[in-house]
Q: What sequence folds into this?
């Protein structure tokens, strides 16, 4: 029987991991809702964000927080340019072509990161050192708590942006019916590219926050596949569903690794397959049908 302190520790660790997956999944869902494109290179935005923050923080010596903001903004620019100059040109092409292109982007980004930063593992100094004690039962690393708090703040900011600003409401309108939004004078193309930028920004933030936990190398973008699995579990067209699915997978993973070490590393995909068999639309169904 797992001791209570270890049970709580694994639970908090799983929630933190799930929150990190959730931040990546947010980008998947935002881009999909805007364009019906599943960006299989989205995890590489996370990897590039971690390297960008590392560059600004340690190579240029700007400190973590300025580096965090500038690193995430720089990857947001990359996301905007990818859509504005490449993805926009293949509108109307087959889903297979789009799939191959986004997968190719993943390989290209990994290769560029390897050539620029090297293939070794890097560490990033953050202000999230030490542990927090919860009573006398358990101590949790501060970096895990930071991921949870940052996820709450970013999700609240996203909901405030889309629900309370004219630009965010216009993005929602464009994602639901692009033609109607265009006739209403909404700059649909610019808003779609901005959605890619927002998704890339959030993924970069996840990469920087995860850096103390996973370290930084060219393969950390593969965590995006687990985030994609979480989004599918929760309901790919739903932001709350994607977050719920990712947190569920994040919590299940450490317990599955402890009790079922034979499936270590693949429990997320086992959960995804079970949910697809039982409830193919995910735990939370999208509330409207997208129109284009």
A:
């Amino acid at each position: 029987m797992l001791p209570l302190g270890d049970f709580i520790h694994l639970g908090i660790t799983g929630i933190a991991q799930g929150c990190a997956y959730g931040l990546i999944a947010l980008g998947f869902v935002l881009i999909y809702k805007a364009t019906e494109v599943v960006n299989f290179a989205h995890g590489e935005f996370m990897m590039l964000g971690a390297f960008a923050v590392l560059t600004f923080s340690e190579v240029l010596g700007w400190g973590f927080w300025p580096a965090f903001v500038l690193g995430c903004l720089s990857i947001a620019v990359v996301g905007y340019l990818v859509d504005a100059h490449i993805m926009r040109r293949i509108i109307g092409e087959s889903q297979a072509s789009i799939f191959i292109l986004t997968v190719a982007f993943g390989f290209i980004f990994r290769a560029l990161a390897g050539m620029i930063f090297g293939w070794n593992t890097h560490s990033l100094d953050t202000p999230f050192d030490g542990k927090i004690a919860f009573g006398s039962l358990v101590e949790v690393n501060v970096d895990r708590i930071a991921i949870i708090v940052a996820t709450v703040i970013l999700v609240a900011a996203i909901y405030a942006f889309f629900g309370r600003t004219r630009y965010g409401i216009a993005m929602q309108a464009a994602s639901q019916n692009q033609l109607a939004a265009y006739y209403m004078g909404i700059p649909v193309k610019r808003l779609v590219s901005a959605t890619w930028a927002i998704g890339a920004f959030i993924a970069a933030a996840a990469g920087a926050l995860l850096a103390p936990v996973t370290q930084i190398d060219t393969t950390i973008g593969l965590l995006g596949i687990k985030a994609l699995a979480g989004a599918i579990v929760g309901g790919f067209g739903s932001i709350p569903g994607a977050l719920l699915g990712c947190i569920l997978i994040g919590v299940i993973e450490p317990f599955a690794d402890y009790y079922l070490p034979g499936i270590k590393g693949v429990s997320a995909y086992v959960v995804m397959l079970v949910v697809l068999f039982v409830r193919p639309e995910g735990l939370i169904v999208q509330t409207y049908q997208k129109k284009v």
